Amino acid sequence: MFGKSRFPLAVDIGSYAVKLVQFEHKKKKLALKRLGMASMAPGAVAEGLIRDPEEVMRAFEELVAAEKAKEREVVVALSGSAAVVRPVRIPSDAALPVEEAIEAEAAQILPFPVEEARLSHSRMGRVEAEGKRMEEFLLVAVRRKPLAELVELFRHIEYEPKIVDVALLALEGAVELAGIGEAGESIALVDVGASQTLVHLLRSGRTLLTRVIPYGGAAVTAALAKSLKVSPSDAEAMKLGTKPVSSPRAAAEAVRGEAERLGLELGRTFQLLGEMLPGERITRLVLCGGGVHLEGLPAFLATSLDIPAKILQPFRNVQVAPETFDPQYVEALGPVAAVAAGLAYRAMEEDEE
Question: What are 257-274's pLDDT values in tens digits?
Fold first, then answer.
């Protein structure tokens, strides 16, 4: 295991920052080689789509220079409105070939024309639904234009995208890397990003339901700025705890309001799961993304949803050299870099196949 001498750079392009993770193997064990983050100007990325390629390239090259990385292969991911991951069911006795049946199903559920999408699927198994035998597949649909733009962005600066993955699936890889989830356990993986929150409901590695909630930590920043009458940059610093808060009570109320909003959306998602799969119940929340550092958010969601919550630490089963990485830095950045960690792990697994 881990026979490859060099692994690609795993890069997650978020709404406000670029995150980078790279693994290596030491004495046949997986080890962390690089972990970093570089901020971007607001608006560079929105809803998973790159709006300002120059700013993204600047942040990425700044990060690579800081990490002294020489590799030219990268693993990246599409997210938000650029990619959809959904389980679909096809009757076992369907008249159409599987590919055609899945494409017909995709045409009904995708938020963009199926002609604009690149489709792939993997078989998950056979289920009984409404008295019929159904074949269940995991549909992955990515929009061709954002995919081409992402590949071109990296090739423009002479990096080769070895794999273009999907953020929701990369998060699944991060959970596997961290060793979370017992056999038969249903978990909700919740990535609270800046402009969106990704929700991936899983049972024993099987996708049950996915959803993109179109807001995240940026809404908290805006609420703080309005409540405290400060600039967005000061509000962001207060949210992250790097700047003192002028009115702790007002700040707590602003954060609580957005936390309640997120809790309601998660509750609706779990209710939808129960309608789709009667008897299915989420037993654990696993939180990641920059939003998890909001004070009290995990405890609030656990209480409001009556489900235990924990913060995802993707590197807990990875060797982390204390002489290279500050443990507090890894603990703080780990949940934020969960997509990049999952990308790195999935790329490593693909190399071994």
Answer: 888 999 999 999 999 999
Count of all residues that appear for the chain in the document: 353
Question: Residue type at 341?
Answer: A
CA 4 to chain centre: 26
* CB neighbour class for 110 (10 Å; exposed up to 12, middle 13-18, buried from 19): middle
Q: Tell whether the model's pLDDT for residue 5 goes beyond 70.
A: no
For residues 81 and 144, give the distance between their C-alpha atoms in angstroms, rounded to a whole number.
Answer: 12
| Domains in the chain with CATH codes | 1-82+144-180+313-353 (3.30.420.40), 83-142 (3.30.1490.300), 182-311 (3.30.420.40)
In this predicted structure, the answer to whether residue 337 has a pLDDT above a threshold of 50 is yes
CA gap 304, 56 in Å, rounded? 37
Closest CA to 121 of 164, 84, 93: 84
151 burial level (CB within 10 Å; 0-12, 13-18, 19+): middle
pLDDT in tens, 212-233: 898 888 888 888 888 888 888 7
Token reading at 118: 């690149």
Count of C-beta atoms within a 10 Å radius of residue 306 = 7
Q: Which amino acid is at 8?
A: P
Side-chain-facing half-sphere of 110: CA atoms under 13 Å: 24
Tell which residue, 350, 346, 347, 341, has the closest CA to residue 19. 341
Query: In the structure encoding, which two tokens stand for residue 85, read together?
Result: 């991951």
Alpha helices in 179-290 (DSSP H): 217-228, 232-240, 248-276
